[in-house]
Design a protein that fits this description.
25 helices; Growth Hormone, Chain: A; 564 residues; MFS_sugar_transport-like; mainly alpha; single chain; transmembrane helix; MFS_dom
Length: 564
């Protein structure tokens, strides 16, 4: 039988990834839901009337208030990401991806039956909680259940689902934007959430999460499902060994920091009633104790650097990649593309669908197509290469949008916005969400993902709120703001972001856990998974030895390795 570590995508992996992607689809649906109906909701362009107790619009006269309505979705996502961390640690990824989907049902009721601005804002926050929890869980869940080879496609599938949600929402909105039909758009998010809740119990839990909780038989069964038809023993032992090393490093770290009582308590919990002094003093490898040790770090510990490995570099990369993702300007296009294009076309907003709305839909179609292209490119090009290419292209088209709007050249603006959105989906869209799962050890993955997604959501909220104001102040030169951020992002990726495509997570962690450093030069490179497997065929490990990659010992002499 083939080694499970070398397989690609199995049918069951695809099935579980599809179920997880429903959360990402709903995320995209709710991002795009305020774009095309925006003028109807905000400015009552089709007239104000009542259908029973329900008004035809919510009549928002202030651009700032509308920005808050648009951006508060991201605040809900931030809350969902924070809350879900607790449930992921205690109940697992499957629980979060199933039960938090019900927030979409509650939010759909509030939005579709809204009678006031306050109710609409609350509804946006509630569906945001569902999206934040789903995004926080699904990237790591997909990363855990796949091999490095399969991760390229299924990881990109998450972004595809998001863009498919935006596209389908925009397509339906062309017919449902007029009052009172816009309420159906917001009701449908509850239907998708209910489908997610009903179907996800048929998926398996992450085998790595089960191993981290000492539930080895369940983990073996889960891995067998994900790798059907392949020999899983070597990969299963790798997972167990990696988990033991993570837990052992935590215990050694407590001792090395002089926190002897905490280390002794953790050992005593397992050896309760037995004499432990000799074992404790010798600091031997505590395999059995590590099975019961709860050592996942929380967000505060990660921010303070209170981790066994120095994860400063990983924290910087994850945080800034998600910050740059939002400040690249993509959500200005997703949230406000109709109004951006309408400036050039000058159409009548009451004549739905307007030319600007049709073009906004076509932009979402192009985004979906380029997501598929990006998934294909991800199989041949590295993460770093795609990120640099994507940010650079977005900077170029940001610059092209400016003269198009200044000279009122509609065709130039439309083409530039198309390309701006398209090149986002080649790299900047899917890759930052995967970085936490590809650069972080298991014990810090939940906290790292929470920090990264939190930064991303706060940035999304900021863009949603400030873009109307920036657009008023800067006018036709607004996209110069995003041009500068994309250039800064491309430089940052070139200097600091390591290549992780097809690399074992454990090897990436070992190589870059020595403080913040530039990644230029061959000493920061690791071999892809195929080369590693080839080397294993020519190497017979000693009895009991793990098939994990040999430890990489980078030259960190110029890097301060002590986490503060």
């Amino acid at each position: 039988m083939v080694d499970s570590r070398t397989v690609g995508i199995t049918k069951y992996q695809a099935f579980c990834a599809l179920l997880a992607a429903i959360g990402s689809f709903n995320f995209g649906w709710n991002i795009g839901s305020v774009n095309i109906p925006g003028d109807v909701l905000q400015n009552c362009v089709t007239g104000r009337e009542y259908y029973g107790p329900f008004p035809s619009c919510i009549d928002v006269s202030s651009g700032t208030i509308w920005g808050i309505i648009v951006g508060c979705y991201a605040l809900g996502m931030l809350g969902g990401a924070i809350i879900s961390n607790v449930f992921i640690d205690r109940r697992g990824y499957k629980f979060v991806l199933s039960w938090f989907a019900l927030c979409n049902v509650a939010g759909a009721l509030l939005l579709s039956l809204t009678t006031s601005v306050a109710q609409f804002i609350i509804g946006r926050i509630v569906v945001g909680i569902a999206a934040g929890a789903a995004n926080n869980a699904l990237s790591t869940y997909v990363s855990d259940m796949t091999t490095p080879r399969g991760r390229n496609i299924l990881g990109g599938g998450v972004q595809f689902a998001c863009n498919f949600g935006i596209m389908l929402d925009n397509a339906i909105a062309l017919g449902l934007a007029p009052s009172p039909r816009w309420r159906i758009i917001f009701a449908l998010t509850g239907v998708f959430g209910l489908i997610n809740f009903v179907l996800f119990p048929f998926a398996s839990e992450s085998p790595k999460w089960l191993i981290s909780k000492g539930r080895y038989e369940e983990a073996r069964e889960s891995l067998a499902h994900f790798r059907k038809g392949a020999e899983i023993e070597a990969e299963f032992e790798d997972m167990i060994q990696a988990n033991k090393e993570n837990k052992k490093r935590t215990e050694d770290w407590l001792i090395s920091k002089g926190r002897y009582e905490e280390a002794r308590v953790s050992l005593d919990k397992f050896r309760k009633g037995a004499y432990i002094d000799d074992e404790f003093n010798e600091m031997v490898r505590l395999d059995k104790a590590s099975k019961e040790l709860t050592n996942d770090v929380n967000i505060l510990q990660l921010l303070r650097g209170q981790t066994p490995d120095n994860l400063r570099h990983q924290l910087m990369c994850v945080s800034l990649l998600l910050f740059f993702q939002q400040f690249s300007g993509i959500n200005a296009v997703i949230f406000y593309s109709t109004s951006i294009i309408n400036k050039s076309t000058g159409g009548d907003s009451a004549s739905i669908p307007t030319l600007a709305q049709i073009l906004a839909f076509l932009i979402s179609v192009a985004a979906l197509v380029f997501t598929v292209i990006g998934m294909g490119m991800g199989a041949y090009f590295g993460r770093r290469t795609l990120l640099i290419f994507s940010h650079t292209a977005m900077a170029i088209f940001s610059g092209i949008i400016v003269p198009g709007t200044v000279r009122n050249v509609t065709a130039l603006v439309v083409v530039a916005v198309f390309c701006f959105n398209a090149f986002f989906n080649v790299g900047v869209g899917p890759i930052p969400w995967a970085t936490a799962g590809e650069m972080t050890p298991r014990y810090a993955m939940t906290a790292m993902s929470g920090i990264g997604t939190g930064i991303g959501y706060v940035s999304t909220f900021a863009i949603g709120v400030i873009f109307p104001a920036i657009n008023n102040w800067w006018g036709n030169y607004t996209f110069l703001f995003f041009l500068c951020w994309n250039i800064a992002a491309a430089i940052f990726v070139y200097m600091f972001v390591p290549e992780t495509r097809d690399r074992p997570i454990e090897e990436t962690v070992r190589l870059h856990s020595c403080g913040i450093h530039a990644v230029l030069g061959s000493k920061w490179s690791t071999a892809p998974i195929e080369e590693e497997r080839d080397s294993e065929l020519n190497y017979a490990p000693e009895d009991g030895a793990s098939l994990l990659a040999d430890e990489v010992e980078p030259d960190c002499s110029s890097v301060k390795t002590e986490a503060k």
